Amino acid sequence: MRIRRYFGFRLQAILLRLVLLLSAVLAYSSLQAQGITTLTAADNGRQVQLNVGDQLVIRLPTAAPRYGWRLAQNYPGQLLVTSSHTLPGMSSGVPGAPATHEIHMQAIGPGGFDLALVSAVPGSGYFPLGSFFHAYVTINQPGVAKNVNISEYGNHGQVTVNKGDQLLIKLGTTVGSEYAWEAIPSEGNIVQLVGQQKEEPKKKKAKPGSAQEVAFQFQALNPGQTTVRFIYRNTTNNEAPPARDFELAVTVPEPPR
């Protein structure tokens, strides 16, 4: 009888150890599956590819520990800020910076956007970064098409989208202006312009001279590389040179097999 109890206790102990070991392995695998990407001032303008569940850490220099950085806008349903603090002496990608502001974020949903940060107090950013930092962020989720939004901050940048994704490019214009954005046909059959619309005023009719955005919507059709181009041209004088231009390099990778 005592022998049976002894072996029974031993078996329970072995099973408990196996359960604890399996739990540790699963927890470790989960952590490995959630990647961590860290950006510093040296990565200003970089393109970042994340998966849902990944963490993004941004470390930027400040002129003093009491200063910091803030997001130029929120990204609901896509990117969530989980912590933010300023510490002296941490690496920010700028040698000699007095302090570093570290922001932790987590990718919670598919999409793409210009991630822009500005110094919370004008002029408190540390040279040579200045008071503005941005990166092109795309968040992927297997089997889910995403909407990638690019503003004029993305001019002369690059972005990667998957086949079937929607790419929305928003460009600034002026109400009542004789200038308008015109899309230049892109080479190949990689992305296709499927729509164009102007930002509608929320309440009152927009006054001439006020700022307005026009949005161009593309769809990624086939793998390859192309450049999407726009010119801000005078609609009343075809001989006048464009006042501005915009271009974005677009890559559509081969889908996984």
From TrEMBL:
GO molecular function: cysteine-type endopeptidase inhibitor activity
InterPro entries reported for this sequence: Chagasin-like_sf, Cys_protease_inhibitor_I42, Prot_inh_I42_chagasin
Domain of life per record: Bacteria
Proteinase inhibitor I42 chagasin domain sequence ranges: 160-250
Cross-referenced Pfam families: Inhibitor_I42
Swiss-Prot/TrEMBL keywords: Protease inhibitor, Thiol protease inhibitor
UniProt name for this protein: Putative secreted protein
